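Could you join me in thinking about how sequence relates to backbone shape in a protein? We need material for that, and I hope you will provide a protein of your own picking. Once you have written the record down, we can walk along the chain together:

…
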Amino acid sequence: MLEVILVTALLGFRLLGALGVRRFATWAASAAHAMAVMLVVTASAHFVPPSVTVMPNHADLVRMVPPVVPFADAMVYLTGVLELLGAVGLVLTATRWAAGIGLAALYVLLLPANVYAAVNDVPFNGDEPTPLWLRIPQQVLYVAIAVWVARSADSTVARRVLHLPRSRVARSATVAR
């Protein structure tokens, strides 16, 4: 389901880019926005009460938190907030690099919960549990997209944060002016 949302949003944004909307002029920018759409959908589940049965809800997500993680209820809310912040960060060009790196790290940190849910047959909304052979590639896909979006983002902010010098190409272009 999430992959359908991701691909549909990606193609829709890329179509807008082909029609002249500059914000979606590249595949990477379109992917950043598509991932933001997917994150809003996934993050919303973190706040949905158990009475809602048309989608995964907060209680479903709490059940997938491994017992070794303290405050499972609070962790589900926290990850929902982080996903929403990541979505906003991907849409804003100035924060896209940081959002992409942060989301890649978040997806890696969420992997144990996905493994736990698959191994312990934790269902979402009463549906069949998602098997591990599907969960792992999904997480790898999300990490890969987040890293790709981060790598394609303007790294000016990254250079400033990490105190890195400009690349040799950027310096020579500045000197040539």
